Every structure is written in C-alpha cells, then in structure tokens.
C-alpha cells in the first residue's frame, strides 16, 4: 500500500472530493444566512451522505488551501491524506502527493484566477 499520496485510488478520491467541494462552493454562494452552512462531507467515499455544519468563517479558513477538505470524523484515508485539524463536529484533511496535485488542478477557486 502506498503512503506517499500516489496511485489510482488517491486520484479517484481526490476527484470525488473535488466534486463535493464544488457542490459546497455553490451551497455557500447561495447561502443567505450568517449561521452555519449545511455542507456535504468532502471525504473520498462515493457512498458518504454525511452532512457537516460549518460556519462561513470555518469553511473559508479550510478553503484557503486547495488541498484541504472538511470531512466527517473518522472519514480520513491515511494512505493519501493527513488529518490537520480535529473539531468536535468535523475534521480537516490535507491531501499529499498525487492526490494533492489533482486537488489543486480541480479547485474551482484556483481555476477562476
């Protein structure tokens, strides 16, 4: 098993997480409240249906990096991502290796530049 963030599984996971991130970006853009956003978990699992409650500030802090994703607790995949923040409501993972490269390439905010 690879531990440097490479491989097909890492690329597929990064693509799935990037798709979830795009959905969450649209949710945030449409939000008219100053309260918490109800976002989908940005984990690597295609079957995940967890909903995360994050403030706009929390989400913006995570999104300041194209390789970081908010996920439900315990949804991390250590083979290609590291948990960089644990909160009582969610965790934040940071991609590494090939998964990080794909995440940067698919980041909607990076593409707008």
Describe the protein's topology.
Layout (H helix, E strand, L loop, with lengths): L7 H23 L6 E4 L10 E4 L1 H8 L4 E4 L9 E6 L4 E5 L1 H10 L1 H4 L2
Antiparallel strand pairs: 1-2, 3-5, 4-5
The proportion of strand residues reads 15-25%
- Going across the biggest sheet, name each strand in turn: 3-5-4
Q: Termini, distance in Å?
A: 36 Å
Helix and strand string, N-terminal first? HEEHEEEHH
- Indicate the overall shape: globular
The number of distinct helices, counting runs of at least 4 residues, comes to 4
Largest sheet: 3 strands, antiparallel
Mean pLDDT: 87
**Rg estimate, integer Å:** 13 Å
Structural class: alpha+beta
Helix content: 25-40%
**Which blocks of ≥5 consecutive residues have pLDDT under 50?**
none
**Total number of strands:** 5
Characteristic key phrases:
single chain, about 110 residues, alpha+beta, three-stranded antiparallel β-sheet, 5 strands
């Amino acid at each position: 098993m690879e531990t440097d963030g490479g491989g097909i599984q890492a690329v597929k996971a990064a693509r799935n997480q990037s798709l979830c991130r795009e959905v969450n970006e649209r949710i945030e853009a449409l939000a008219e409240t100053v309260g918490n956003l109800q976002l989908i978990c940005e984990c690597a699992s295609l079957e995940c249906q967890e909903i995360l409650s994050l403030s706009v500030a929390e989400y913006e802090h995570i999104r300041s990096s194209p390789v970081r994703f908010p996920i439900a607790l315990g949804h991390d995949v250590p083979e290609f991502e590291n948990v960089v923040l644990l909160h009582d409501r969610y965790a934040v993972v940071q991609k590494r290796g090939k998964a990080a490269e794909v995440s940067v390439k698919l980041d909607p905010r990076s593409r707008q530049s």
